[in-house]
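Researcher: Can you fold this with fe (ii) ion in place?
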Amino acid sequence: MDKIGILLLNLGTPDAPDAASVRRYLKEFLSDRRVVEIPQLIWQPILRGPILLTRPAKSAKAYKEVWLEEGSPLAVNTRETAVKLQALVGPDVSVDWAMRYGKPSIADRLSEMVAAGCGRILLAPLYPQYCAATTATALDACYAALAGMRAQPAIRTLPPYFADPAYIEALCTSTVRQLAELDFTPDLLVASFHGMPERTRTLGDPYYDQCLASARLLGNALGREVRVSFQSRFGRAKWLGPATDESLRTLPVKGVKKVAVLTPGFSADCLETLEEIAMRGREEFLAAGGNKFAHLSCLNASPEAMNLYRALAIRELVGWLET
Ligand SMILES: C=CC1=C(C)c2cc3[nH]c(cc4nc(cc5[nH]c(cc1n2)c(C)c5CCC(=O)O)C(CCC(=O)O)=C4C)c(C)c3C=C
Ligand SMILES: [Fe+2]
Ligand SMILES: [Fe+2]
């Protein structure tokens, strides 16, 4: 029988925390029509002008603050997840990982898996909430790679798991564990999701509703309020709100002096969680009069995460494993 493969998909990250590498990464990322939905004739001059002239140096400085010895946190955490999942599923299933932008590329990893004999592949975008700018574009890139193959593997895709009891349980257990390790009891738990232009919601992207559903289910499981906000605004259009940075600045005035922020839409810690929330978010909250701030780590390759991915993968593979 054909070998079975699982390809974990994540967003992508620069090769190094320097302006040239960040420029290459941003050019590829922000040229994706699923991400910036402005006609290319208008958008490309803006991207290649003001954005790529100024943002790479600024972002490279931020990447330097969080860079690990082994590389970018997003890549390190995603690779570790793949290695641990491989150990859990055993030698009959081959687990690999790829990035939508940058390396390792989806095209390279998919053709490598096929060359290694994988005739059945589960494509697993590591985004709990479906978004065209993340899930759809990662799968588009897989289909584009498959389009160039004469002998294609059979394909399955992992559905969004925003309301899956296994995801909510993983988040709940990870949150309870991390809260118990803090030296304070937070007045409020904030769930900060990556933002999106508000227009994408009216156009039918289910992302916003799925973020709210995940937070509500987590709140029910924890038995306490989980307040939602959206981070990482980009560009001039109106984005989903409320904005995390604004909320963190106003919470102390409203009497919330101790806060814990979790980032459940990110499967792995990355620039957006480690720099924007854990560093800048903390500074802003404390400067606005807050006393205590904690960022709770993403699921990464924690025991809770590995239980979750094993459960999701086995559910998808069950028909294939039996035949
Ligand atoms: C988890 C879901 C994500 C959504 C939805 C998303 C939408 C989105 N992002 C940008 C612009 C940028 N995002 C950047 C970094 C970044 N974004 C996500 C995830 C989502 N993005 C991750 C995991 C990361 C971190 C990558 C890393 O290397 O650690 C950046 C780059 C950093 C910077 O310069 O600020 C940009 C730019 C848009 C425009 C968008 C939807 C329209
Ligand atoms: Fe982003
Ligand atoms: Fe950011």
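Model: Folded with fe (ii) ion in place. Residues 232, 272, 276 surround fe (ii) ion (ligand 3) (CB under 6 Å).
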